[in-house]
């Protein structure tokens, strides 16, 4: 597929010392846009550019100042600028079209964006919370999480154990959250769990930790989407905790429960769910949660997001390199050009 230099897309991102979900989703979209033949740049307002293990480098990373020099020397113009929630991320470069990609409703700044700015939202909850019009562009699960996935087992020894491995992320005050939760757990339950407070690491390490855990504690709030619980479900790990708001898009929103939810900020309710799971859940109950979780993650794949992106971009102009692909054509494209989700 020929790169279309007339259509440059840039993602304007703020500095973040860790690769958070917000940064990750921009890289996911950038790789899909490169699939469509666009010239895609990821630009930062800081010289320290994060390292992302699964990034395929089909897009170019650089600072804002370097990118401005590139535009001057090349004489090219930007077709689309996709920025963060902060209006400042949309003001660094002129572009024919601008998008504020809202990934957490608490950062949405109504009335602060320049005229003509389009709004994209990471999920339904985020959009409804902002009470604004725009497109929903969901994230997708990378193959780091789906390739390690296996079908849930009904075997007793796979579900009912003498000791359960429990994982909680250190980021967003996870250590402090666990200290509060554990106050409500009796010794009988504490003796049956092995706690892993996971420090920030690359995705491959996090996926391995999830894969080796029985329980994942979703302690973070508020969230625009809350991706880690979805990643845990993909790996067959039982999720206990908060939706954070955004997680309500996929947590226990179907016909069957896929996790054990507590009201946001209610640490005692998380503890009650842990107690119930460890002491009372049968292998069949555990299997049911895992199976429902597996069914949930199916719709969060690269092809679904790819089709949504194609439709939106087609509305911005009439000269797209690609407008429609079947799932088979998309798979072939991945094999020929790059692996978008690895």
Describe the 3D structure.
The structure is a single chain. This protein is of the alpha/beta class. It folds into two domains: 4-140 and 301-336, Rossmann fold (3-Layer(aba) Sandwich); 143-297, Glycogen Phosphorylase B (Rossmann fold). It is 37% helix and 18% strand. It has a seven-stranded parallel β-sheet with strand order 3-2-1-4-5-6-7, with helices on both faces. A five-stranded parallel β-sheet has the order 9-8-10-11-12, with helices on both faces. Helix 6 (174-182) crosses helix 10 (267-280) and helix 9 crosses helix 11 (283-297). The radius of gyration is 21 Å and the shape is elongated. The two termini are 20 Å apart. The model is unreliable at 336-342 (pLDDT under 50).
CATH topology of the largest domain: Rossmann fold
The helix count comes to 13
Show unreliable segments. Answer: 336-342
Query: What shape does the CA trace take?
Result: elongated
How would you classify the helix and strand content by structural class? Answer: alpha/beta
Largest sheet: 7 strands, parallel
The CATH first-level class of the largest domain comes to: Alpha Beta
What's the CATH architecture name of the largest domain? 3-Layer(aba) Sandwich
Report strand order across the widest sheet. 3-2-1-4-5-6-7
How many beta-strand runs? 12
Q: Count up the domains.
A: 2
How far is it from the N-terminal to the C-terminal residue, by CA?
Answer: 20 Å
Give me the strand/helix succession.
EHEEHEEEHEHHEHHEHEHEEHHHH
Beta strand %: 15-25%
The pLDDT mean sits at 87
In CATH, what is the homologous superfamily of the largest domain?
Glycogen Phosphorylase B
Helix content: 25-40%
Determine Rg (CA atoms, Å). 21 Å
């Amino acid at each position: 597929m020929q790169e279309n230099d007339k259509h440059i897309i840039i993602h304007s991102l703020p500095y973040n010392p860790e690769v958070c979900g917000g940064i990750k989703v921009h890289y996911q979209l950038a790789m899909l846009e490169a699939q469509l033949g666009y010239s895609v740049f990821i630009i930062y307002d800081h010289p320290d550019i994060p390292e992302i293990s699964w990034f395929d480098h089909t897009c170019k990373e650089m600072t804002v100042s370097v990118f401005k020099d590139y535009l001057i020397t090349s004489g090219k113009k930007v077709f689309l600028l996709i920025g963060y929630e902060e209006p400042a991320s949309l003001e660094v470069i002129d572009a024919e079209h601008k998008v504020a990609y809202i990934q957490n409703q608490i950062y949405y700044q109504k009335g602060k964006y320049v005229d003509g700015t389009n709004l994209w939202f990471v999920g339904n909850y985020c959009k409804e919370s902002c009470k604004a019009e725009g497109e929903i562009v969901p994230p997708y699960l990378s193959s780091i999480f789906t390739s390690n996935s296996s079908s849930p087992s009904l075997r007793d020894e796979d579900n009912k154990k003498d000791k359960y491995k429990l994982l909680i992320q250190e980021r967003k005050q996870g250590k402090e959250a666990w200290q509060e939760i554990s106050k409500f757990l009796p010794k009988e339950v504490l003796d049956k769990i092995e706690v892993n407070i996971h420090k920030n690491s690359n995705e491959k390490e996090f996926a391995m930790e999830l894969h080796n855990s029985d329980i994942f504690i979703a302690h973070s709030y508020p969230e625009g989407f809350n991706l880690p619980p979805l990643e845990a479900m993909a790996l067959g790990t039982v999720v206990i905790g908060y939706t954070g708001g955004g997680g309500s898009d996929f947590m226990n929103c179907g016909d069957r429960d896929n996790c054990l939810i507590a009201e946001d900020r209610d640490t005692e309710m998380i503890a009650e769910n842990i107690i119930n799971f460890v002491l009372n859940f049968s292998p069949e109950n555990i299997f049911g949660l895992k199976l429902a979780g597996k069914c949930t993650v199916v719709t969060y794949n690269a092809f679904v997001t790819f089709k949504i992106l194609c439709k939106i971009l087609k509305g911005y102009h009439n000269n797209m390199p690609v407008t429609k692909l079947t799932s088979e054509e998309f798979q072939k494209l991945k094999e020929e050009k790059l692996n978008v989700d690895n």
